[in-house]
Amino acid sequence: MDYQAVLDEVAAAVAPHVGRGEVAGYIPALAAVDPGRFGIAVADIDGGVTGVGDWETPFSVQSVSKAFALALVLARDGESLWRRVGREPSGNPFNSLVQLEHENGIPRNPFINAGALVVTDRLQSLTGDAAGALLEFLRAESGNPAVSFDHGVAASEAEHGDRNAALAYFMASYGNLDNPVPTVLDHYFRQCSIEMSCRDLALAGSFLARHGVGRDGARLLSRSEAKRINAVMLTCGTYDAAGDFAYRVGLPGKSGVGGGIIAVIPGRCTLCVWSPGLDARGNSVAGVAALDHFTTLTGWSVF
Amino acid sequence: MDYQAVLDEVAAAVAPHVGRGEVAGYIPALAAVDPGRFGIAVADIDGGVTGVGDWETPFSVQSVSKAFALALVLARDGESLWRRVGREPSGNPFNSLVQLEHENGIPRNPFINAGALVVTDRLQSLTGDAAGALLEFLRAESGNPAVSFDHGVAASEAEHGDRNAALAYFMASYGNLDNPVPTVLDHYFRQCSIEMSCRDLALAGSFLARHGVGRDGARLLSRSEAKRINAVMLTCGTYDAAGDFAYRVGLPGKSGVGGGIIAVIPGRCTLCVWSPGLDARGNSVAGVAALDHFTTLTGWSVF
Amino acid sequence: MDYQAVLDEVAAAVAPHVGRGEVAGYIPALAAVDPGRFGIAVADIDGGVTGVGDWETPFSVQSVSKAFALALVLARDGESLWRRVGREPSGNPFNSLVQLEHENGIPRNPFINAGALVVTDRLQSLTGDAAGALLEFLRAESGNPAVSFDHGVAASEAEHGDRNAALAYFMASYGNLDNPVPTVLDHYFRQCSIEMSCRDLALAGSFLARHGVGRDGARLLSRSEAKRINAVMLTCGTYDAAGDFAYRVGLPGKSGVGGGIIAVIPGRCTLCVWSPGLDARGNSVAGVAALDHFTTLTGWSVF
Amino acid sequence: MDYQAVLDEVAAAVAPHVGRGEVAGYIPALAAVDPGRFGIAVADIDGGVTGVGDWETPFSVQSVSKAFALALVLARDGESLWRRVGREPSGNPFNSLVQLEHENGIPRNPFINAGALVVTDRLQSLTGDAAGALLEFLRAESGNPAVSFDHGVAASEAEHGDRNAALAYFMASYGNLDNPVPTVLDHYFRQCSIEMSCRDLALAGSFLARHGVGRDGARLLSRSEAKRINAVMLTCGTYDAAGDFAYRVGLPGKSGVGGGIIAVIPGRCTLCVWSPGLDARGNSVAGVAALDHFTTLTGWSVF
């Protein structure tokens, strides 16, 4: 596959979509991003990486980090996580409390905010430094030691974090957080603030295409665990648009309000696309269009 | 009306109910109360007060305080409160977040916890010391300068206050709190911790039977405002059992999980009953039975 | 009380409200009503009746009929009805299915559509002709043998009755209807189609002000039952605006989308007001304003 | 792949699960099925079919039919269906009305009952005989002209069909059904009553593994449409257990309360498993276990 040619064609095709949608505006640091940015990278399972556009520009990973935090917890802790969080699509926005109340403080899945807070809480218990452990993992798998937190973004998230605080205290009221709420929120906000480029994220996510094998050839997850993370990404990775994403793109994916999306073609490659304009459900407009176009051009899809 | 005879008969009739139900167990200080306690007092609009049983024993007023906090805010601020809180029955438990999400952070009424937090927030803005202002008011109207906070209960509420913290942060995320969340929670927990006897509460609530006129003859609320607080108590004062309370008792009332209930017979008297055993919806079992029996004996009801 | 003078003043005061709001448009027969109509009548407990405006013009009673159907069932069947329908305010629109699903087919109260269908079903079982029994009762209590069904309205309701059919089949799926769904719907639509004037309805509802005693002096309901129907009207009679109606008007009331509202001042009189323009929650704009003004002028309120 | 050996091993492994769970009891015809039955068949894309156990015994396909009805509508009508039904996982049981009310009569996806009724309604408009068109299609693709309705089951479904009637009338109230409700229900109940064996269903579903190409080599659906049906099956095909099914089995699948499940391995084969005992969410206990085991043995998964 001539990735460069395919990505060039994808970039040309989606150019009219770049700049559409709304940049996430709930914190000033994200609202200031140029909506005209677009980058896409593909990391082959053999380790090569190709990209076009702003593919080497760092951006705020936000919820894309949730896929990696889940992988770290499953790798260390196995299936026990599922006693504290479900793995069903939520059918509700990412920050909803309604379902949480109906289901007694057990979040529907690890990718809505409530579920991600549980994952961070567990990672904190397992490592003593959830955000640090995740950063270290992302540096190692991306091969980029410069990956780091954006402390300004983290502080801004905390300042505007009343909704996430509500989710965390609510779960704490059901006994579903082991660490103090402020600790969990601090690590969660830092985790979301990590800055990476499409290149970094595509490489960091390669283990999901390599059925669990990491950058250095060591196994990070069992084959079965890697498949299962892909399954959770497909059914729950794009908020309440997961069905539509599966329908149009047909790949496991995880999006963030920074405008990034990673997508996995098991056994072949991992993609990362970035463009800050979001649709009404919080997914990058140009990003989804690019992945849609990529799968149409290549004929690659899990279906 | 020979109140003493009526109250004696009420006490005898409800004796089999005393001890039934569950004492509120979410904080140790409340859980330790003797479930066998029962007291009832009636304060006539002319200032006399009569009681039987444990009617002079202080107990934790808890949500009964919400009626007084609402009166203070309406007295100082008039109708503007209703931009921030509704006045419809909620149909949901007192600490539910579901409705709050569906209705964009505007609590359904001032007597569910979320609404009471908004009232406390407003009282804090108006007075600079919400809990203190309320305490002073209750001392003045009850004529008992010994009425005070139970700091142990307040601390215990704070320690087990994750659910209320969730409600407060959730409303803050919608911009519906003006003061910092920890400040609002602190005053709210202290407000709930106030200890008063049936005698104190019946006297303190007399202005609601006197159409707004306070202990010293000065007008605290307009006639219309006093009626309106009674209306809100009737439709919303006993959590999701308000319809049943209206059906059985037929009086405006406000209950608390400490086992106290005040009830108003406009133009006649104010009642307060206390017994710690609660039904499934958080109202005193023997307390509701006593009010039911009182209205049956006297034929007094707003209907 | 010089009712005529009071009603004249009320009519003058609310004239600016007449014509405001939206006439119920879901069936053509209702949509064609002149929004400029306004009438009000008061029936004293001694049997006298006074009115102004269009107080002798028949209109479609719609949901006002639910108060009378409830009275008939309670009179014949006592408290057993409450096993099949609750008596709590719903906090949801009158034709909502959400609560019905959460609560296993038991409607929240007898005045939302689902609850009224249960009442009609029970009345059908008790009488063999629910709509006919209700009509006969309304004729007798109003003293007007000309009160009758509007078969055109009933047919139109049936034609546009998919939502009510959904409610009925849904309850049937929980076993909460005893008669065939089409039978229940037929009687329900006819019950709602009854045409009466303010005069007729104020007289027909006098037993609720007379603590259960009917036109001919015979007891229709016990004193306690009459109070209880008033309580249910106050907490549930005006859909999801019951709290606001209690706050502003302070009387037990029952509204209909034909623009009529009855209200009860226990021990004094029964009012009926009619004006077709409805607010967003289905209550007559000028009707609520008129009752509000009436209680302000007279100082009469249950609170 | 030696299918026979794999299926034998699967059957041996899941034998302890056969008979577990509850046979669907809502209609007598289904309740009478022997819970000890188990069959599994695999239809290779080259047309061969292999099976073990009760793989040639007809059973009631129930909701498995929904995947085929969707295919027929998409084949004839393209994307326009999605204006009337969504394609997001519901997160609620298959017969819930709650979401339907929140979303104005637009069902969440075509595999919950409400959505399937819309599909049947559309198929009726397109063909004039929805159930007949579906039956003809299933006969042709399975190569078994004996496939037929079970009129006893259809009649029994109708007799116990109040819940589905509620769903249909509810959507009709939003204008989301074009045909009369009784017509839609009649075709829906007959569609669900079709009897087929694992052999029949695996063959009939082969076009989904062949990227849209039918039994006779003619294209039934475009490659893209076939992928998209697989995507909808993966995200929505097993009710509110879709996330769990994706996690454990990792294949597009569609289950029915008759105990059947079809699953697709795109480019390879289509599976059908049958065992009547259902889990709490309506999926065959032994069926899910068998598919889980099959994917583990073969290593085949879309992830």
UniProtKB/TrEMBL annotation, chains A, B, C, D:
<feature type="binding site">
    <location>
        <position position="239"/>
    </location>
    <ligand>
        <name>substrate</name>
    </ligand>
</feature>
<dbReference type="InterPro" id="IPR012338">
    <property type="entry name" value="Beta-lactam/transpept-like"/>
</dbReference>
<dbReference type="InterPro" id="IPR015868">
    <property type="entry name" value="Glutaminase"/>
</dbReference>
<comment type="similarity">
    <text>Belongs to the glutaminase family.</text>
</comment>
<feature type="binding site">
    <location>
        <position position="257"/>
    </location>
    <ligand>
        <name>substrate</name>
    </ligand>
</feature>
<feature type="binding site">
    <location>
        <position position="188"/>
    </location>
    <ligand>
        <name>substrate</name>
    </ligand>
</feature>
<dbReference type="Pfam" id="PF04960">
    <property type="entry name" value="Glutaminase"/>
</dbReference>
<feature type="binding site">
    <location>
        <position position="164"/>
    </location>
    <ligand>
        <name>substrate</name>
    </ligand>
</feature>
<feature type="binding site">
    <location>
        <position position="157"/>
    </location>
    <ligand>
        <name>substrate</name>
    </ligand>
</feature>
<feature type="binding site">
    <location>
        <position position="113"/>
    </location>
    <ligand>
        <name>substrate</name>
    </ligand>
</feature>
<keyword id="KW-0378">Hydrolase</keyword>
<dbReference type="GO" id="GO:0004359">
    <property type="term" value="F:glutaminase activity"/>
</dbReference>
<feature type="binding site">
    <location>
        <position position="63"/>
    </location>
    <ligand>
        <name>substrate</name>
    </ligand>
</feature>
<protein>
    <recommendedName>
        <fullName>Glutaminase</fullName>
        <ecNumber>3.5.1.2</ecNumber>
    </recommendedName>
</protein>
<keyword id="KW-0007">Acetylation</keyword>
<comment type="subunit">
    <text>Homotetramer.</text>
</comment>
